[in-house]
């Protein structure tokens, strides 16, 4: 009798599991929103398409086929309207991040991270604590770190040129980005540029973390079960994030030892012109340890390292790729740089201020990031209490909505009928109204209160390195890249694969 009751209960549970999504879909005010048939009942379709590694293209195609709103899961909706963009991400919007982001941090409620935090009030308070270290005015103090890595990177490229071989520039640019963010954060490089090697497998391990967080986030309730298993399987060496945490703790310990020496009030030692993030965070902790705790300090440093290499490396790769795919653009940019050099307006190191005075350089960078933003999935948010109306459609509270930057950047009503074409000149238009519209819908670093806090650092690295590369080196794409588009894989970050380039030292005089 007992077994029959259990069997009956199991059957009822199974039927309910199957029927509930169907009944919910039939009664939902969103039942008429188009999308692949399977997405009405399961997130497995989304998982499958993300697994294929090209969801940014899938997402674009869905909107081409169905319009401004498309369904990509039972409770997941992708939008492409500029008005919806403002509603969801605008300053003051109360749309918290979806549970997809939960897998990017420890499942313990107390162990938040700035990127993944779903609590709007806590995120707002913590972001305020960090903000001063990431402002545009702070950039000048980080320039010597970028210059040091640029010099080392230039040496490596000269060696590659001497060898006469093709090099994976995606890998080299990530080595560069990793060492820059290491210097900016701790005044110490991890050493990627020394030999161009993946130090202790950190890049591979972080890519594995990317894979885990992206896929598990689609079924985020699994995270609390998989996270401890994953850490156990990683063994004593830990995951890539664990290694970065260990590196951070070592730097913190070193810094604490140095505190026995007298440190000036401004926190900058005599003879130094730069102040790294760790020093700034220690000073904030000393000034107000309750508001800016040691957890704030360590998480700020770890977040810099984990998030500060991939996005910048991808963006640098995209800029170089499009310059090489469009040789006339490369030559136009080189002419701008050479002219500045002849006029004595730039020196060996190109300062950030000098880079801002190169309009074509800025247009090239902006256009490359429009064509290839680093993230390639919808930036999911949850409709708040009371629901919201967008694109002439009411979305009940609890609905997951999002806009993919790849979709937004291909909007012809914003960027023109040639939105699918790389054309930096669109950013040099004299039409201020058009430029303003494009600026408002340009979102490679997100939008609103959740905009990437490190975007200015990334912009600093790109603005200084790209003109140096164009001025000092010639490049040639490998034959397979000349004949076709490059290959990328989208597991949240849209990373280039096998970006093979031949490097040659530029020998002609200016």
Secondary structure topology:
Elements (H helix, E strand, L loop, with lengths): L1 H26 L16 H8 L3 H12 L2 E5 L2 E4 L2 H8 L30 H11 L8 H25 L2 E3 H18 L5 H4 L6 H17 L4 H12 L5 H19 L18 H11 L6 H14 L2 H16 L1 H16 L9 H5 L2 H13 L9 E2 L5 E3 L2 E3 L4 E3 L2 H4 L3 H4 L16 H10 L13 H18 E5 L1 H5 L3 E5 L1 E5 L2 E6 L5
Parallel strand pairs: 2-7
Antiparallel strand pairs: 1-2, 3-11, 4-7, 5-6, 8-11, 9-10
Quick one: biggest sheet?
4 strands, mixed
Uncertain parts: 262-271
Q: Termini, distance in Å?
A: 92 Å
Q: What share of residues are in beta strands? A: 5-15%
Number of strands: 11
> Averaged pLDDT, please?
89
Our count of helices gives 22
Q: What's the Cα radius of gyration?
A: 24 Å
- What share of residues is helical? 40-55%
Shape: globular
Class by alpha and beta content? alpha+beta
Write out the strand line-up for the largest beta sheet, numbering strands in chain order: 1-2-7-4
Report on this model:
By secondary structure, the protein is of the alpha+beta class. Helices cover 54% and strands 9% of the residues. It contains 22 helices and eleven strands. It has a four-stranded mixed β-sheet, with helices on both faces. Strand 9 and strand 10 form a beta hairpin. Helix 6 packs parallel to helix 21 and helix 14 runs parallel beside helix 21. The longest helix is centred in the N-terminal third of the chain and has 26 residues. The chain starts with a helix and ends in a 5-residue tail after the last strand. About 2% of the residues have low confidence.
């Amino acid at each position: 009798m007992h077994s029959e009751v259990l069997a009956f209960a199991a059957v009822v549970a199974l039927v309910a599991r199957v029927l509930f999504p169907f009944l919910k879909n039939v009664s939902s005010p969103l039942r008429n929103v188009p999308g692949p048939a399977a997405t009405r009942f399961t997130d497995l379709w989304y998982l499958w398409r993300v697994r294929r590694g090209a969801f940014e293209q899938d997402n674009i195609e869905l909107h081409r086929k169905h319009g401004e709103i498309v369904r990509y899961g039972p409770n997941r909706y992708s939008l492409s309207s500029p008005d919806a963009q403002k509603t969801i991400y605008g300053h003051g919007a109360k749309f918290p991040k979806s549970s997809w982001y939960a897998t990017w941090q420890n499942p313990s409620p107390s162990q938040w991270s700035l990127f993944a935090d779903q609590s709007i009030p806590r995120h707002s308070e913590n972001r305020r604590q960090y903000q001063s270290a990431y402002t545009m005015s702070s950039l000048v103090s980080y320039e010597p770190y970028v210059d040091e890595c640029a010099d080392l990177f230039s040496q490596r490229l000269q060696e590659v040129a001497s060898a006469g071989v093709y090099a994976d520039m995606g890998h080299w640019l990530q080595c560069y980005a990793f060492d820059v963010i290491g210097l900016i954060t701790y005044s110490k490089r991890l050493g990627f540029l020394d030999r161009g090697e993946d130090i202790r497998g950190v890049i591979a391990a972080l890519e594995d973390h990317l894979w885990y967080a992206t896929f598990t986030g689609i079924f985020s309730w699994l995270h609390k079960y998989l996270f401890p298993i994953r850490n156990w399987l990683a063994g004593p060496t830990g995951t890539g994030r664990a290694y970065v945490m260990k590196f951070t703790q070592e730097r913190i310990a070193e810094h604490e030892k140095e505190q026995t020496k007298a440190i000036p009030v401004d926190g900058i030692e005599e003879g130094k012109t730069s102040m790294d993030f760790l020093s700034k965070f220690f000073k904030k902790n000393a000034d107000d340890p309750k508001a800016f705790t040691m957890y704030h300090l360590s998480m700020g440093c770890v977040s810099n390292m984990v998030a500060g290499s991939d996005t910048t490396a991808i963006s640098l790769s995209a800029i170089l790729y499009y310059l090489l795919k469009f040789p006339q653009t490369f030559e136009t940019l080189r002419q701008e740089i050479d002219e500045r050099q002849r006029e004595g307006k730039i020196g060996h190191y190109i300062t950030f201020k000098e880079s801002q005075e190169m309009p074509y350089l800025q247009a090239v960078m902006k256009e490359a990031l429009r064509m290839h933003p680093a993230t390639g999935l919808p930036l999911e948010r949850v409709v708040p209490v009371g629901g919201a109306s967008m694109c002439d459609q009411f979305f009940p509270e609890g609905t997951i909505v999002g806009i993919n930057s790849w979709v937004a950047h291909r909007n012809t009503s914003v960027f023109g009928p040639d939105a699918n074409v790389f054309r930096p000149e669109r950013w040099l238009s004299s039409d201020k109204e058009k430029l303003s519209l494009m600026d408002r819908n340009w979102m490679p670093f997100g939008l609103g209160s959740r905009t990437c806090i490190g975007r200015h650092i990334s912009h600093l690295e790109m603005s200084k390195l790209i003109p140096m590369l164009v001025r000092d080196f010639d490049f040639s794409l490998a034959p397979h890249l000349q004949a076709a588009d490059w290959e990328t894989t989208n597991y949240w970050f849209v990373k280039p694969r096998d970006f093979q380039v031949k490097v040659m030292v530029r020998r002609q005089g200016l």
